[in-house]
Automatic annotation (TrEMBL):
Domain DNA/pantothenate metabolism flavoprotein C-terminal, chain residue ranges per copy: 187-279
GO molecular function, one term: ligase activity
Domain of life of the organism encoding this protein: Eukaryota
Organism: Trametes coccinea (strain BRFM310)
PANTHER family: CORNICHON-RELATED
Protein's UniProt name: Phosphopantothenate-cysteine ligase
């Protein structure tokens, strides 16, 4: 049986060293210009803005990439949540893995609900000369609902979509977007649902061409991706309300790892989810009010959120996750108002 092994002493990049040595993606400048314009417009219109990250990052093994490692995520959590944030009045920057699920079009995913299956020729016409295509009656109600919201969001200009593929694209984009969003102060929310690789191969160590077989087993030593939440919280967006996700497959690790992340980075919420239970159960872990440096386990509180899919199979847990966060974000904005009134 194959096993994985980890050795001590592999390089851990600080965020500073990472950005000094790894090149930015070619589309970065163009994306930043779009984000700038979007943020300015939302500022003028007084909207809260949420950055939703979604989908998995890849780690290429070659410069001319043939092989890569991938992180698990279809983009369901992110794309579904983005719709509920839009419904709650937020403007959404949706930063997702290319070809993963997106808000609205997710309802017509080619693998679970292919759109060709619900279109038909007009029965009154000869198909070979058809000039009209009709939607099957069973699909109309949902399509009208999705299309109406989609068109309204387009008209309002409240959804900006950005794309990443590699973990390098993701890190550069996250830094740039968060720096632009910091202008929004406490009105910005970060919802970091993307599944981000913990390990990567620095460009300087990558083979230029396709790794050749025929020389026995392949050994690759990867370096650790910098812990990006640290500069995000402490430098790039000091006032943003930051929610990260923690994915585990061992349920016993969920709460300790979530607490550890909060203690390390000092952000607002970690949402823990077990891989196999994530569609109906998550746990919100957050600091109790007034956690200081050197926090212990008693300084955090957990609240579980569960839905009953047997009772209501159409229910999406993201609806309740987003409702809870919208409430917490508002309280947090109001708490800052109270603090500044007191000083
Ligand atoms: C999550 O835990 C997401 O909820 C899922 C969503 C990836 C499980 P799907 O897109 O899945 O609905 O198929 N995302 C965060 C995963 C992650 O990489 N977290 C890092 C970690 O656990 C911290 S930021 O260490």
């Amino acid at each position: 049986m194959a096993t994985s092994s980890q050795s001590e002493g592999g390089a851990t990049f600080s965020a500073e060293r990472y950005f000094a040595t790894q090149p930015p993606p070619a589309s970065l400048e163009h994306d930043v210009a779009r984000v700038k314009e979007f943020v300015q417009r939302q500022l003028k219109e007084g909207r809260k803005v949420v950055l939703v990250t979604s989908g998995g990052t890849t780690v290429p093994l070659e410069l001319n990439v043939v092989r890569f490692l991938d992180n698990f995520s279809a983009g369901t959590r992110g794309s579904t949540s983005a719709e509920y944030f839009l419904k709650a009045g937020y403007a959404v920057i949706f930063m997702h893995r290319q070809f993963s699920l997106q808000p609205f079009s997710r309802h017509y995913s080619h693998s679970t609900h292919p759109f060709l299956d619900f279109l038909d020729f007009d029965p009154s016409e000869d198909p070979s000369e058809a000039s009209h295509i009709v939607v099957r009656p069973s699909e109309r109600t949902q399509l009208v609902e999705v299309l109406t919201t989609y068109k309204a969001v387009q008209r309002a200009g409240t959804l900006l979509t950005l794309t990443f593929v590699t973990v390098n694209d993701y890190l550069w984009l996250l830094r740039a977007v968060s720096q632009e969003m910091s202008l929004l102060g406490r009105s910005c929310l970060y919802y970091l649902a993307a599944a981000v690789s913990d390990f990567f191969l620095p460009r300087q160590k990558m083979s230029e061409h396709k790794i050749q077989s025929g020389k026995g087993s392949l050994h690759i030593e990867m370096d650790q991706v910098p812990k990006i939440l640290k500069p995000l919280v402490q430098e790039w967006t000091r006032e943003g309300y930051i929610v990260s996700f923690k994915l585990e497959t061992d349920p016993d690790l969920l709460i300790p790892k979530a607490r550890q992340a909060l203690a390390r980075y000092g952000h607002q919420v970690v949402i823990g989810n077990d891989l196999h239970r994530r569609k109906f159960e998550v746990v919100f872990v957050s600091p109790k009010p007034k956690v200081s440096a050197g926090a212990s386990a008693e300084d955090y509180e957990e609240s579980w959120l569960r839905i009953d899919l047997a009772q209501n199979p159409q229910k999406e847990i993201e609806e309740d996750i987003v409702a809870e966060l919208v409430k917490r974000h508002q309280q947090w904005i109001e708490a800052a108002g109270t603090q500044s009134a007191l000083t």
